[in-house]
Request: fold
Amino acid sequence: MSSLAKTPATIVTGFLGAGKTTLLRHVLENAGDRRIAVIINEFGDVGIDREILQGCGVKGCGEDGIVELSNGCICCTVADDFIPALEGLLGMAEPPEHIIIETSGLALPKPLVQAFNWPDIASRVTVDGVIAVVDGPAVAAGRFADDTEALAAQRQEDGSVDHENPLEEVYEDQLLCADLIVMNKSDLMSEDQRAKVAAEIKQTVPRAVKVVETEGAQIDAAVLLGLGAAAEADLDARPSHHDHEEEHDHDDFDTFIVDLPQVEETETVIARIAEATGSHDILRVKGFLDVKGKPMRLLVQGVGGRIQQQFDRPWRPDEARHGRLVIIGQHGLDREAIARSIAGE
Reply:
């Protein structure tokens, strides 16, 4: 790479639980000798995604390769957090050949793309592409969309209805900004569902964007890295529901942490997590459990009623062993009731 060439950066966006971190792990495992750095945009104050990546055992997932921003929205503090993070990576003795940014599942990607026009980095980094990861089964179930016919009827009956769906807006903004859309978890969908979701995506996005179906977010790294989109110079082609707002935030959503002591067995706890998710307006659960008699920590991730679990790595001698879950949902979560439910109180 010549001294004048810009370092490519890939933005991975997608709603909560779509499979962004899983996709990142797969890319890192299959990137060969390419020097890749990852910036994680965590929503909340615990670095679960960073912990998941560092637990993968892949060369390059160490402290130097991962930078964590915990404000939940990179673009909102671009001069304070994001640019210093980029400059730190670019100033390394062996700077990365490619940078991957995993956004918060509730982040709007367009303002982040705009941030690459910031004078301090515009001449040094380019947005190689924006990848939107879609939770296929969730979209097929209508989890992010309103019943448009029912809403139209309601508006016709009551002209005062002024409806906004923050979930649908975030989801659509992520699609509208994308250069490649990964429809994940296709193995959990029927052929008709896959065709329907793909058609809905193409109807939402006004320009030609490739939709790729994946299982377990497994996709060739060469497909994701090297799109050459220069997205920061193509903002007009990426419309957003929030184009005319001075700023945006996460006021529609809440996040908090539930700490748990060591558990005797997992089945009961997982059932309580699923029950709490179904009974409250929880969008996403992710974190770890400490299981008695097990040398490895149990990674727990849930979207809707689907709770996944796997032992990901041994507990380190220097870390405190206890469970910790991040709960993310729409504004107004009953935090105490959720915590009690998960704890079995």
Observations:
- The chain has a mean pLDDT of 80.
- Residues 191-204 form the longest helix (14 residues).
- The chain has two domains: 7-237, 253-343.
